[in-house]
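Practice record 12: protein with zinc ion.
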Amino acid sequence: MNDRDELRLREEIVEVSQAMAARGLNRGTSGNVSARLAGGLLVTPSGVTPDRLTADAIVRLDAEGRAPAGSLKPSSEWRMHSGLYARRPDMNAVVHCHSRHATVLACAGRPIPAFHYMVAVGGRNLIPLAPYRTFGTAALAQAVADALDGGLACLMANHGQIVGAPTLAKALAIAEEVEEQAAVYWGALAIGGPKILDDAQMAAVFAQFKGYGQGG
Ligand SMILES: [Zn+2]
């Protein structure tokens, strides 16, 4: 990857961070976004709100989490991002946020079952829930990577949601859909609980997604 590609990726991270704020997926400094680079990653800095974020504020980290001298401090949650790139060659972008309805469910200890066909955007028949671990720790990075095995999205207990995808645009779109699914599931629970689609019905959804070129 040359400098020009890296700059483009930095700009895209800024755009995605600002889109997350504009769409209500995060507030203040709570979300973070990253993209894979050869030998490491680019990640949003700690404590900078999306409206003040610039391409040169994005932090480049190597696989051990080291940044060049003079960089801003990376997001405290960089280990979750780094851990996913190490384990998931299919993921080139990671988006994490505390979007409201996903966080409501995560705080109630509820993964999202296949109550609506669009739950399939997470790559599986459910959007699972990673167990609670302290933010910023290697233990949380491990819990999230385990919960994401075989899928692209999960809730994080008492915390929020995280999505990994081949591109930043796709990660943002999935995170937005996870929040929408969380909101609808929450509403369905409030009026007596949803009816759950069975495995055959969800298999048909995945087949249909493939046909539309939108699968997995
Ligand atoms: Zn967080």
